[in-house]
Amino acid sequence: MLVLPWTQGCARRVRLDAYALPGDGVSQFPAGSSFSVSPNPGMPNPIFDRMVKEKIETALRASGFQVNETGAQYELQYDYGIEGREETRLSKVPGPFAGGRYRFVGGMGFDNWDPLYYSTIVADTYPVYTAHLRLRVLKNGQTQAPQEARAVWVGETSTESDERNLRELIDYLIAASARSLGRDTRKPVDVTVPEDDPVLKQLRGAAPAAPAASPEGS
């Protein structure tokens, strides 16, 4: 059986690398800080991009922050994607029968026949998909400054799967990012997002509702 290293029981492992701007004093955004989330114009799937934007807003609110379209203290930008590759794993399995041997058992004098097998090395090739999300927080109120100068925090997350399913994996990446918003991890770290993570549960309930049907004749 193939053991997936990126899952741990009822949890998923996410690699997180977060940067806070040195000298800015932003080690953690105070509770109640306000953010505006900027969409990505020109995305090939604008429906999914809108879903990601709404999920990020949901995670911000679940983490104690405000979301304002205008007048927010910070602007949050995001980008995401998924790439695939193939990996090969070697395993040892019983090979062809190679005879056997008698083994003396206990004091009764019975012999036991132990069959002997060669060991065979088998190579299994399987797909691995890496989903990634990058969040960038920019400080508002500095309209003349370039975006690079306004950046106060960047968080990068990734996780792997044997299925190309970004719409499911994105929830884990957003939940992991929300934990470290405003913090500097100082190095890449692995975090575990359990299925009962409060933000993850909020995200899974954040799918946009279907539009209400219009009355007949309207």
Instruction: List the uncertain runs.
Output: 207-218
Number of distinct helices: 4
Strand order of the largest sheet: 3-2-4-5-6-1-7
Bin the strand percentage.
35-45%
**Total strand segments:** 7
Radius of gyration: 26 Å
Mean of all residue-level pLDDT scores: 80
Helix fraction, binned, reads 10-25%
Question: What sequence of helices (H) and strands (E) makes up the elements?
Answer: EEHEEEHEHEH
- Main beta sheet: 7 strands, mixed
- Shape annotation: elongated
What structural category arises from helix and sheet content? alpha/beta
- The separation of the N and C termini measures 58 Å
What keywords describe this structure?
seven-stranded mixed beta sheet; alpha/beta; elongated; disordered C terminus; 218 residues
Short recap of the structure:
The protein is of the alpha/beta class.
Fold and architecture overview:
The protein is an alpha/beta fold and 218 residues long. Helix content is 19%, strand content 44%. It contains 4 helices and 7 strands. Strands 3-2-4-5-6-1-7 form a 7-stranded mixed beta sheet. The chain starts with 10 loop residues before the first strand and ends in a 14-residue tail after the last helix.
